[in-house]
Design a protein that fits this description.
This protein is mostly helical. It has four helices and no strands. α1 packs antiparallel against α2.
């Protein structure tokens, strides 16, 4: 037990030293940028950079340790998708014909576009329809 504490303390001090060195490096970098800005006559920028340099503090990020195995506990995973480039996604579907079910038109935006252009715009694959509505006041 004593040995574990000693090792943990030694590791903590090592991490603190690394964090302090990184913070000092960042402070020096910001101070150098502030000095350069001051030389160029950009006093506001220099002051902001100097303030940032003064606010840099060492931060220690704890290392991830593997959680102990507990009987009766399991892990499962789910997956999700995000569109990073809508044009590439649409191009892929258009070229291959695969996954057309993944595209759902924004009907609200299409209705707004139809009203704004009074249905005169032409978009391949879209029909703008003019509907007549009659209202009677009594």
């Amino acid at each position: 037990m004593q040995e574990q504490r000693r090792k943990a303390e030694k590791e903590r001090k090592r991490q603190e030293a690394i964090a302090a060195a990184a913070a000092e490096k960042e402070r020096n970098k910001l101070a150098a940028r502030a000095a350069k800005a001051e030389e160029k006559g950009q006093t506001e920028k220099a002051e902001v950079l100097q303030e940032q340099a003064e606010q840099v503090v060492p931060t220690i990020t704890p290392e991830e340790t593997e959680a102990p195995k507990v009987q009766g506990v399991s892990t499962s995973y789910t997956y999700k998708a995000e569109i990073t480039n809508i044009r590439q996604f649409c191009k892929y579907i258009a070229e291959t014909g695969n996954f057309e079910n993944l595209i759902e038109p924004n009907k609200g935006a299409l209705k707004q576009l139809a009203n704004a252009t009074k249905g005169t715009m032409t978009i391949p694959g879209i029909n703008f329809i003019k509907e007549e509505h009659i209202a009677v006041r009594t």
